[in-house]
Amino acid sequence: MASLLKALLGTLLLIALVLPHCDAHVKPRHAIRKHRPNFKTGPWKQAHATFYEGHTGTFGGACGYEDVAKEGYGLNTAAISTAMFNNGQTCGACYEIKCVNSQWCKPGQPSLHVTATNLCPGGSSGGWCDSPREHFDIAHPVFSHLAEYKAGVVPVQYRRVPCMKQGGIRFTITGNPYFNLVQVSNVGGSGDVVGMQVKGHDKLKWTTMKRNWGQKWETDCMLAGESLTFRVRGSDGRYSTSWHVAPRNWQFGQTFEGKNFKQRRR
């Protein structure tokens, strides 16, 4: 009898180890519905800017975006230095940049609005993207709106601004039934995402997803066969919930568009 119990316990332990662990919980309604003000423009700060080459599909790099031109970001994108990147959390944030104190600045100091879609990695001691420097490496096609190419590097002033996006937040689902990866893009308001949850229509309760890298979020819970609802939390504390955005028969590789944050430029 004792040996039978040991065998049964061993089997149960093996099943527990094999089955995926889902960090499921229900978010209190009052916490979701509590009013929070729209994302506000931040103070002006000092930094420098350069430009980098590349095809449109490569401007997403360390943030996980596949093709920024198709995902709502256009070519007004920038790689930001390690001090600003915050291990990928800043991906999707929007900035207003002005060239200052350089003979190569465009007349009138026009503003350039960009979205952070990549990392400008450090590596060489004293390099522009090494900590603690704050730096923008701007996509080549739009750097000319800020300054002359011949400048190479220019001093700039910058500030965080609300992200004004067309359409809804986009959710691209990849992976397999035992490991689901959801890329979040085209986020308005604060632009960056600090929290993600998913819920099914049947068995899957509200489940917290973990940041895999950049703006790709993971869960090993079973999502296949469920109509999916996603809840996104921005760095300003606001939530956006896209109810049943993916139908029950969704397939890996598909992108679905949900509800975006309402935002007015200030």
TrEMBL record:
Per the record, its GO cellular-component terms are:
extracellular region; membrane
Quote the Pfam families the UniProt record gives.
Answer: DPBB_1 (PF03330), Expansin_C (PF01357)
Q: What residue stretches are annotated with the Expansin-like EG45 domain?
A: 60-168
The membrane topology of this protein is: Peripheral membrane protein
Question: Where found, per UniProt?
Answer: Secreted, Cell wall; Membrane
Residues spanning the signal sequence: 1-24
InterPro entries linked = Expan_Lol_pI, Expansin, Expansin/allergen_DPBB_dom, Expansin_CBD, Expansin_CBD_sf, RlpA-like_DPBB, RlpA-like_sf
| Keyword annotations | Cell wall, Cell wall biogenesis/degradation, Membrane, Secreted, Signal
Q: Does the UniProt entry include the keyword Secreted?
A: yes
| Domain (Expansin-like CBD) ranges | 178-258
From the UniProt record, give one GO term of the biological process aspect: plant-type cell wall organization
Q: Which PROSITE patterns does the UniProt record give? A: EXPANSIN_CBD, EXPANSIN_EG45
Q: What does this protein do?
A: Causes loosening and extension of plant cell walls by disrupting non-covalent bonding between cellulose microfibrils and matrix glucans. No enzymatic activity has been found.
| Family to which the UniProt record says this protein belongs | Belongs to the expansin family. Expansin A subfamily.
Instruction: State what protein this is by name.
Output: Expansin
Source species: Acer negundo
